[in-house]
Amino acid sequence: MSSEAGEAGSGPGRTFAPLDETDRAIIAELRRDGRVSIRALAEQVHISRANAYTRLNRLLADDVISGFTARLNPQRAGLGTSAYVMVTIEQNAWRTVSRHLREIPYIEHFAMVGGDFDILVLVRAPDNSALRQVVLERVQEVPGVRATRTWLVFEEAPGRGVDWSA
User: Fold this and answer.
1) Phi/psi of residue 15, each to 5°?
2) Which range, of 62-76, 100-114, 140-154, averages the lowest pLDDT?
3) CA-CA distances (angstroms) from residue 98 to 82, 89, 90, 101, 144?
4) Taking the CB of the first residue and of the last residue of the chain, which one, N or C, has fewer CB atoms within 10 A?
């Protein structure tokens, strides 16, 4: 699919309008507070409610915004142990491995990466015993996984993130 500006439509040849300053402001406000009302959102970005509805619906339809979620405090949610697991896989095993990783509890996120290993996995578990089970009994048993290396997280801090208002 093309991400260049073009004629709107549906189907495989559909193109998407590039984000403008107002779209980026809407995204920035929603990232600050995903529960903001349309009225408040429109006021904060200085557009009409109708325009806010239209733009939000377009951002959702174009999958620029793919959903809304709650940010959790892992410790308060009972997930006191976090680790990044670097996974090395057999060549061409990504599809199989990613399908299996989606089914393993406590895996919050994973991504195929370039470098010394193939997949970076974020695991948030209740304790070291659960983390051990995830890595040694679940991830390492996935067909196509050759090796893992686990890095415990001692402390986390949020990053600045993308400045969508720029």
Assistant:
1) -115, 160
2) 62-76
3) 20, 10, 12, 5, 10
4) C
94: Cβ–Cβ under 8 A, 6 or more apart, which residues? Answer: 112, 118, 119
- Tell me if residue 30 falls in helix, strand or coil: helix
| Separation between Cα atoms, residue 155 and residue 162, nearest integer Å | 22
How many CA atoms lie within 13 Å of 126's alpha carbon, on the beta-carbon side?
A: 5
Sequence-ordered strand ranges (E) for the chain: 81-89, 107-112, 119-125, 145-153
pLDDT tier, 56 (very low <50, low <70, confident <90, very high otherwise): very high
| Domains, the chain, with CATH or none | 21-61 (1.10.10), 81-153 (3.30.70.920)
Q: What angle do CA 23, 26, 28 make, to 5 degrees?
A: 110
- Identity of residue 144: G
How far apart (Å, rounded) are the C-alpha atoms in residues 17 and 71? Answer: 29
| Predicted pLDDT at 3 | 37
Q: Which residues are within 8 A (CB) of 74 and not within 5 positions of it... i.e. 6 or more apart?
A: 80, 82, 124
